[in-house]
Amino acid sequence: MNFLKLLRTSQRQANLSSLLLQVGLFFTLAFIVIALVSPLLQAWGILQDPTDLLTNNLNEPPSFKHLFGTNIRSYDVFSRTLFGTAAALQVVLGATGLSILLGVPLGLISGYLGGKVDRLLLFVMDTLYTLPGLLLSVTLAFILGRGILNVAIAVSISYIPQYFRVVRNQTSSVKTSLFIEAAKALGAKPSRILTRYLFLNVIQSIPVLFTLNAADSVLVLGGLGFLGLGLPEEVPEWGHDLKEALPDLSIGIWWTTFFPGLALTLLVTGLSLLGEGLSEKLNPGNRK
Length: 288
Hints:
By secondary structure, the protein is mainly α. It has a single domain, classed as MetI-like (MetI-like fold, Orthogonal Bundle). About 75% of the residues lie in helices and about 0% in strands. The protein has helices spanning about 1-45, 75-115, 115-130, 135-145, 150-155, 160-175, 180-185, 190-200, 205-225, 240-245, 255-280.
């Protein structure tokens, strides 16, 4: 009986992880499609240019003409919400891509070489890791200025130590394995051992970390935009649009905050669910 109960519990957990993965993948793919299709819809005249000021259309409620209404600056909210997806995904890819490109190789080198190199890199990464991520991103964004690349750099700095620590710890444990010792005995160079043997055995946690950092980077971008430190004002971005629309709530204009906020929430939720689902699939030992 206990075995059957355990089996049913395990099956329910497996079904739940599959559901999380499917829902998260659906939302993530939906936003990717929106980002890709929006410029085409604008080029075909179906979608309003998000930077066009609509004369005499100030704070109009949702209608067939403007599905999400217009805001206080006479922009079409539907168009800006859809085009804001592209800005969010560009920062996501830039921030997580930069952090992977730096964090993973440094983690491999630190874990494999050990000694003074390991201690030095650990000191640098632990110092970065102790700093509040959002505060660090705000400071760097203020220094670097606005723009997709600058924001991506500012956001990525706080993620580098995470990839470094995960890869470094796994490399330290894998490097003593028999197949690594055999490769050394056969005369394999350190660069070949790092790229061919160690890398392929320590990357299983990277997809999970990537999706969780991607969700966080969307929130950080929204926070920077809300503070006026994100992208240029003419670029559609959810955080900036929420900042512009905040006074509207006091006079009953709900649509200028609702739709950008909903888009941000759904993308973050999708990426988070995708990360949780991947974590369960790739690391079954995490299941309770």
